[in-house]
Amino acid sequence: MSQCAILVVDDEPNNFDVIEALLSGQDYQLHYSASGSVAMAALETLQPDLILLDVMMPRMDGIEVCQCIKAMPQWESVPIIMITALTSKHDLARCLNVGADDFISKPVNGSELIARVRSMLRIRQQHQQLAAFNARLEATVQQRTAELYQMVYQDALTQLPSRTALLQQLAKQQQLAKQSAAAKSAADKAPPILLYLDCDEFKLVNTSFGYAVTDRLLIAIADRLQRLVQPGDMLGRLGEDEFCFLIQSITTENQLNEFLQAILQQFELPFTVANCEIFITVCIGVALDDQSDRPPEALLQDADTAMYQAKLRGKGSYQIFDRQMHQVMFERLTLENNLQRALELQEFELYYQPIVHMQSQALAGFEALVRWSRHGQELIAPEEFIPCMEATGLIVPVGLMILEQACHQLHQWHQQGFAELTVSVNLSGRQIGSPTLLADIERILARTEINPTKLKLEITESAVMDNAEMAIELTQTLRARGIEISIDDFGTGYSSLGYLHRFPVDNLKIDRSFVTQFQSMTQKYCVVEMIVTLSKQLGLAVIVEGIETAEQFAWLQKLDCEFGQGYLFSKPLAAKEIERRYLQPHH
């Protein structure tokens, strides 16, 4: 540690000699100034840690010197000990009033001088330590503030503006647009436009390639999108795979459409990341500010809502927000809540539609169909709630409930003597993708004690084609347990002919749309005929649904279809009504 520097200010050199002698063994570095003006001029050079200042000096006395030094910010913390022969309280008070830290009476006592110098230097050292600590603290605060600002206003991965920054800029643009509209100026500011982007099936990409690759993919996406940013516009990242354009430069519908197409074109070519080519698409929601004093968050919510609607239309779609979407989203959310509550309150009921042998018209079994008895009163058809359950995943627990109820009911009918009856239950695409499906089915079979060979599980053609390999493995395992597999809605929208020879399938179920064409589009007969012919060649049974007229029934009998169901035979009925009509005990 360097020596402490002490500046002695006194017009009498002899007094300096005395102080020097008294402090000779203390390892201090002493400096001398013969006047106050000389002392102040030498401050920068000497950098004193302590000043010993004589009060009685010509021209500029110690009181004035002390006052001047303490008035300078860079020296106000340097302690000053006044050395004076004046002993009155008034004189001492004057010294303290101008900023002196201590005083020593003349003649100077050596022990007192040493003690007071040590005390002041200790205070000086503490002050310096505190100043250094404050400086470090200030630097830390500034660094943390900068980091916090970056966290709040900048996305760490892509370096794009964050959600907060985008909303803040949107608020400014809204204000400018309102002021411009109020002033009706020639250089009107167009109301801002938000374009909310969300990558399609990003979680699948994340699962396939891992976080390190998808982080690089997001950076690459940001780089491509930034090519489209015009002066005055902003591109921000809102979430994991969500980006948002804040546009001020677009003023016409044609410009907007061109910009939307330009965004979609950025995703036509694959992204090359970690030596992998990754194809990805986006859906876009568009919200136009109507200058109705709505907060920025509301406009962003509109864009998000529109984006969600775009996703329902398919990959690479966009949708412009309109007010009706709020009501649609509200109704959707209400339906989701009601369905969740319905599951908890056991409001779902099973109805059974008879399936008959087409040639003999004898009862073969039933298809279990779910109905929603809301509040135990109104009966809601499945087409009104099944799509919502599919989208939310609620179809998985509801589907298991349907399967267990149907198996339990079938077991009861078998116990009543109708051992040849079968029951058909639908499996949704969501259920097929469930990792616990097989274990759940095994648990239900064990709990209900039914004969597995009397259970038919119907899988839609679309669910099969969504993941053919998984569906093949699943159906093989189920058939090994004796469970029959039916392909439902065969021939609608997909072509699984190439997979049929690989699937361990028992039945093809012809969709009702082909049957209704019998009356109005006779040229479509060949479609059903082809399916029946194909089924016989593959050794599969044909089940026809939607039979409503005797004419349809006669036509299908002629084609030699094995099974049929429809309103010609019966509409779906509650279990008790099924028993009353079809399952009376034999006498």
TrEMBL record:
Keyword terms: Phosphoprotein
InterPro entries listed in its UniProt record: CheY-like_superfamily, Cyclic-di-GMP_PDE-like, EAL_dom, EAL_sf, GGDEF_dom, Nucleotide_cyclase, Rev_trsase/Diguanyl_cyclase, Sig_transdc_resp-reg_receiver
Domain Response regulatory: 5-121
Record-annotated GGDEF domain positions: 190-323
Domain of life: Bacteria
Protein's UniProt keywords contain ATP-binding: no
Protein name (database record): EAL domain-containing protein
Native source organism of the sequence: Romeriopsis navalis LEGE 11480
